[in-house]
Amino acid sequence: MCGRTSCHLPRDVLTRACAYHDRQGRRRLPEWRDPDKYCPSYNKSPQSSSPVLLSRLHFEKGADSSEQIIIPMRWGLVPSWFKENDPSKLQFNTTNCRSDTILEKQSFKVPLGKGRRCVVLADGFYEWQRCQGTNQRQPYFIYFPQIKTEKSPTRMPAILDGEEAVSKWLDFGEVTTQEALKLIHPIDNITFHPVSLVVNNSRNNTPECLAPADLVTKKEPKTSGSSQRMMQWLATKSPKKEAPGSPKKDESGIPQWSSQFLQKSPLPAKRGATRSLLDRWLKQEKEEEPMAKRSHS
DNA sequence: CCAGACGTTGTT
DNA sequence: GTCTGG
DNA sequence: CCAGACGTTGTT
DNA sequence: GTCTGG
Known about the structure:
The chain has helices spanning about 10-15, 105-115, 165-170, 175-180, 225-235, 260-265, 270-285, and strands at about 5, 20, 25-30, 30, 40-45, 50-55, 70-75, 120, 125-130, 135-145, 190-195, 255. By secondary structure, the protein is an alpha+beta fold.
């Protein structure tokens, strides 16, 4: 899935890219909170803060839920019951959420049911492809081509394509969870290219991170005489290691993506998964009302 | 009922 | 192998 | 996501 | 806080 993004635009440019239309159809720019925490980078990793869009109603009682706020936030979900001050003390991973279990996993379904939706802004994201026969992993940059509307903010494996989808996703006051989930579907107007291994280290923050690059050259580890003897010794002594050069099981030649999203892509499997996801939601809550109309007993 | 987890990746 | 830090 | 640490006592 | 497992 997604563990690295680029979000490098200057703040004013990013803000304009997030222009949207409110309930009255007026064109607006999202209002910033904590603008100084915005830290543009070509190489954003979990624990860093990324700009996030969310409904104003999350901040002000009685606010227009179609109005949007933009705030730098730490990557990863912190459960509401987590009392430590330091979110890095959370003892399990919440940097990703599987779309096929989001309605089962308590850490995600509870906040989802409360309308806690947001949109993480990014130029695109990185994925590492493991190739057979090497330990190296080939990074790729994946993004919307810069042709259409300039604004195409994304949430990672769940990508919202276009302003309207973003607005509906955020407007938890009017748009129910079930309607919101329908906005997430595989997108096809997306593209990618291989990038340099420079992106591997999250300290590297340069345009080279997302620049097109040649595929990683599979260099045979030039083994010195001594290391060859060492390898032989390991091969005979260690039951865990396989003899170097022994035939590998998987000769399919099919590239294995780390991402479920890219692996299964926009075809039947994913469609089916999405449908059963929605079906399950519909079963457990028949006539979901939008948040704005729910009674607060 | 209480205790304890609450999550993802990938690989075997 | 697994966790933390970036 | 990947890279890099993973530990303690005591002294400078 | 809420769910699962015992």
